[in-house]
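[09:14] KT: can someone run the structure on this one? pasting the chain below
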Amino acid sequence: MHIPLPDKTLQCDAAMRESLQRFIDHPEPAVIAPCPGCSKHVPRDCSPKCDEAPQALSIDPVRYPLEPKVIPLVYEVMASAGLKSCWSCEGHMNNEGELWKVPQVCFYSDTAIYPQLVLMHLLDLFQAKKLNFNWHVVLSEFNRSLDITYSIQPNLNHVSEPHLGALQHDLGVISDDMHVKVKAIARELLERFC
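[09:31] RB: done, structure tokens below
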């Protein structure tokens, strides 16, 4: 099968350049707290390990505090410019011991280039053999609105028996300084194409 190249190559117009630069220039979590409900932002201590993180990162902190294994990835999404988490799950098994819900983080984005940066980060990790599974960013139906929702989730199409512990391990690998690594990808794209 022959797959033709797109009619046009990636062009970095002023809007793309501005979006990448805004992503790169976004202040670190020590400057701007990524947790919308944070009541005690202490710059040097701001991290997903904060005891307030499960509630401070949730849109409904009383009824739905974040699950422990997904907190770091939600924190990193919220620490990135133009991304806003809207739903998450650390993954769950059913009563028969089978994977019932996959770990995932859903988010909104100010522009389509930002989810692409996250996807490049996931591909870098997978190609470096740091992940147990291939993860991707997909369009997600979250709340029946006109807003586009994306989801970071494992691609389990060719996996017969995924192990929840291995998937949750991947959550930690993906989230490890993600906002810093994704900024580096944005910087590389800006230098290469703009």
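[09:33] KT: thanks! The chain has a mean pLDDT of 91.
[09:34] RB: yep, looked fine to me
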